[in-house]
Structures are given as structure tokens and as C-alpha cells.
Amino acid sequence: MKNKILSITLGLALLTFSRSLFAGEVTINGIAGFKDTPMQPDGKWHVHDPDRPQPPIVAPGAFSTQDQPGKPPADAIVLFDGKDLSQWRDKDGKPAPWKIENGAMISAKSDIVSTRQFGDIQLHVEFCEPSPASASGQGRGNSGVFLMGRYEVQVLDCYENKTYADGATAGLYGQHPPLVNACLPPGQWQVYDILFTVPRFETNGAVKTPAWVTVFHNGIAVQNHQSFRGSTGWKSPGKYQPHGPEGPVGLQFHNDPVRFRNIWVRPLQPADEP
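Request: output the structure for the sequence above.
Response:
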């Protein structure tokens, strides 16, 4: 009898406690939440506010394999799908001089840039270094991914190939080496997934916030919210020149036939902006 009374007492206590957890809960448009909680620091929404806009739904893509490029997310802007170079031009505005072979575009003659301009982005690029490898250092499979056409993430064959650290694969060229060397052997497809935040400038041209980048190379974090010191240069630590909020994605030709495939972009909006 005592055990039964104790069980009933504990049950009532738990019921009272659980009701107290949901005190003040409201339901708006079928979404449960609270309106009696503190406001968020930006003053727009309560903590757990049911009125706060829901994140949009995006169907994920599919991962690539060595034999087959993956599928981009549903909201991605595809810059190269293996079929044509309509999304690219050379830096002088002429048709891109690179050639397409077996679903990949091969660097040749000059740098190319995307015909579209972007600000903050998620960028996916797959590349394959020439095989068999030849030369060494910077002369081995050299190319680059340029964000806004200014800020370079180095492409190079650093598999069993050493060079100066700030010019290594996935380095911010001339500025920051990668955290690790995640290179695969030449002839294998490799992947960059890049998150890029454009720099912001004051009205007088001073840097308000620098350009930030996070880079995953073959699934490994090699740049962790790292800042660019300015536009990429050779034998230069980088220097900022004020520019607009958008720019093209660029791919470099550096005398080596590096192959690229499955290139797509997702423009990113600052948090909480509709």
C-alpha cells in the first residue's frame, strides 16, 4: 500500500513538473512556442518564438565518386556540369578557351571566370591533377580557385611533393598554409568545399571586416574561418583594395592541364535575413 501511495505521489509530482515546463506555451500557425520568454539580442524574436520564420527546405545532393560526379543540392547554381562552358569566359570577356573531355574541363591558354557574380557563397569544386606527375614544387599541377576573382585558394599536386608552405594545396596563396596536407595521388578526383564571406568596407575605403574562408579538402578542414590579408599576389602578403559586394569565381591556368568537374555555388544570406 505504501509503495502504491508513493508511486501515485511521484506521478503527480512529475505531472506538475512537466506542466510547469510548458507554462506559457502558445501555438501559432500550428507551431508551438513561447511569447513570455526573453527577447533575442537583436530584439526581433522571443527565445523559442513560434512566429520566427522557418528555415527553407532544400533537398540535399549526392556525393561524388572517382567514376561519377555527384549531384548538387536542389538550390545550387551549377557552373559546370560536364556539358559546356556557357557559364565561363576568359578574363577579357572572350569565350572560355578551355576544352571539355569526358565530362571535365581542362585548363588551357588563360584564366577563366564565371559569367555570374557572387557575394557570400558555398562553393563546390572538384579537380584532378595530371597523371603521371611531372616536375616538382610549384611546377606540378598548378592552378587556383579565385573567390571574387581576387582571393586564391591554391590548387597544386602536393602528393609527395613539397613546396613553400603558403603555396601548398588548399593554402591561401602567399598568406596562410593549409592546416594539413590532404592530397590524393595525381589522377584521382579531389574536392574543395569552400565557405566564403566577402570583405566589408567603410565608406572611406577602410576594411570593416576582412574576407573569411573555411575550406574542406577531401572532407578534411584545412582552413578554419581564416581571414585573407587582402587580394592574392605573387611575392606579396596581400593588400585590400575597396571593391563591390560581388565578384566572379575564377579558375587559373598556370601551364598545367588540370581537370575540373562538378562546380556549383550556393549564395549565402546573412543569418536571419529573409
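Confidence is low (pLDDT under 50) at residues 12-20.
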